[in-house]
Please model this.
Amino acid sequence: MILRSCDMKASIKFLGMHRIITKIDRLDMPINANTSVSDALEYTRERFPDLPIEKGMVIMTVNQEVSKPDRILRDRDIIEFLPLIAGG
Model:
C-alpha cells in the first residue's frame, strides 16, 4: 500500500499536566516526508500557546524513545513532550 503525503499522520500524546491543560489525550498532525519532531513541537505550540513545551524544557520522545528535534517523523509515530524535572 502506497501512502500519499496527505494520508500520513503522527499523533502527539499528552500526559499529566499537559493533558489537564489541553483537555485532550492526543492531537493528530498531518505529516509529509520532511516533517520533524521540531515541527510537531511548533504545531502543538500554535494550538496550545499556554502549554509549557519550549525547546530545552522538555524531553521529546518518538514511540517512547528519546528523540532529537531534527528526527524525521514517519506515519503513525507517537510524539510526547515530557517536562524536565529537577530536584535537589
